[in-house]
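for the writeup, i need someone to sanity check this before i put it in the appendix. the sequnce is what the collaborator sent (i think, or maybe the updated version? ugh). structure was predicted straight from it, no edits. if anything looks off just tell me and ill rerun, i have time this weekend
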Amino acid sequence: MADASENAARRRLRDDDAIDFGELPPAVNEILQRGVALHRVDRAAADRAFREALALDPRALATYFCLYKIHTYAGDLDAALEAAEAGAREAARQANLSPDWRLWEADAISLDGPGRFALYTLKALAFIRLRRDEPCAADEVLAHLARLDPADAVGGSVVAAIRRGVEA
């Protein structure tokens, strides 16, 4: 049975407020939309919703994105790191890449679909590492991301600029 915050989130969520997560099973999309609405009022309930979506379909990359975003915003960097690492591994699996991002090669990564998500999640990993005060780990991710995405399609340069500001 849904609690009061979930009911309130459902009432606030209208079709025009929905986030386009791309192609997802309808049940997963519905849960993610609910989780996004819940995030505004009840972070724990949002986390539960996103984990429900993950349990329903662990291949849905948008769920990992939701999880690492909400936990990064909340400052729960251990959970954010866990979700981002899991998302990178799942994206790698779908893109036929090694589960270890350090072994990825630029010519093996497509800049769309799961390949793009994998690169975008590397950017998130670098940011999370910075927030965790792990500059050397962030530098490792950023250096590899720059080799994988020299055109900066996923915006790794933004996190690199943040890193330079942290360094200054």
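The helical segments are 4-12, 26-39, 43-56, 61-74, 77-94, 113-131, 135-148, 156-167. Residues 1-57 form one domain.
thx in advance!!
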